Amino acid sequence: MQIEDSVALVTGAGVRLGHAMALALAENGAHVAVHYHRSQEQAQQLAETIGSMGRRSMAVHADLGDSDAVRGLIPQVAQALGPVDILINSASIFERGTIANTTVEQWDRHLDINLRAPFLLSQSLWQQHIAGRAGHIINIADWRVARPGTQHLAYSISKAGLVALTQSLAQALGPDLQVNALALGAILPAAHEQAYFERLAARLPLRHTGDPRDVVHALLYLLRSEFVTGEVLQITGGEHLQ
Ligand SMILES: NC(=O)c1ccc[n+]([C@@H]2O[C@H](COP(=O)([O-])OP(=O)(O)OC[C@H]3O[C@@H](n4cnc5c(N)ncnc54)[C@H](OP(=O)(O)O)[C@@H]3O)[C@@H](O)[C@H]2O)c1
Q1: What distance in Å separates the CA atoms of residue 140 and residue 114, rounded to the nearest whole number?
Q2: Which of 14, 51, 105, 205 could bond 42 through an S-S bridge, CB–CB 3.0 to 4.6 Å?
Q3: If you ran DSSP here, which 8-state letter would residue 8 be given?
């Protein structure tokens, strides 16, 4: 599809990878809604930056654990910026928890934010979609769903569900809407993961960890493609093969 003049909503776009993807969309001519939960200041700054680039933009708040707030997001963005063509489901939580200590609350929180919210947003996008117009849903997943470990149980299950959602919706929403996922490896460490990333780099087939630009390249490839849907693109430096 043509990214220029399309309208995009990126969840979790105030910081880190969501921020990089939202900025890249604007640099390629899209009008961008910058969703945030706690990172209000960063989201507003990014929306201003995008506005100064001559695109329409807004910072938009929602707790993705609240289904009513999630249902309101796309209509709110559509009213302000126009019908949404591109939905990037990037916001997510990632907490430790094993079979021994995962609580019901933790399980529900992961499933609600990481899986139910992308489902409800996809449903809203489809409901306001204008027939004959191209559109994309890109879900940000994790390569670990192919071989789920034991330490992030609720997270892994939520991302596995997100991949299944991608493949199901790719069939249901064609021909206008393409639905794909990026399964990320070690791209951007949390503060406590820096040393782990350095050790991991030496073991990867490509001998380095990733960069937000790697995610942006893959995102732009999927958005420009007209014959790819239901795909889960591994952005891992080869980690998913090990
Ligand atoms: N970083 C990596 O190397 C890596 C590796 C594998 C997969 N991924 C995936 O890539 C995506 C982005 O990762 P990241 O590391 O950039 O994310 P991150 O630093 O963990 O940021 C999480 C984002 O989710 C939003 N969020 C959290 N709880 C929320 C809630 N209740 N309601 C609404 N938004 C909420 C946050 O918004 P606020 O800041 O506004 O609160 C924030 O923007 C995620 O889906 C993640 O699973 C990343």
Answers
A1: 9
A2: 14
A3: E
Nearest residue (CA) to ligand 1, atom 24: 91
Is 38 touching ligand 1 by the criterion CB < 6 Å? Answer: yes
Decide if domain 7-234 falls under CATH 3.90.76.10: no
Task: For a ligand 1 pocket test, name from 9, 11, 44, 92 the mutation site with the most ligand atoms within 8 angstroms of its C-beta.
Answer: 92
In the chain, where the domains are located: 7-234
On the CB side of 138, CA atoms within 13 Å amount to 28
Give the residues across from 135 on adjacent strands. Answer: 177
* 221: three-class secondary structure by DSSP: helix
Q: Does ligand 1 come within 6 angstroms of the Cβ of 161? A: no
For the Cβ of 211 lying below 6 angstroms from any atom of ligand 1, the answer is no
CA of 179 to the centre of ligand 1 (A): 20
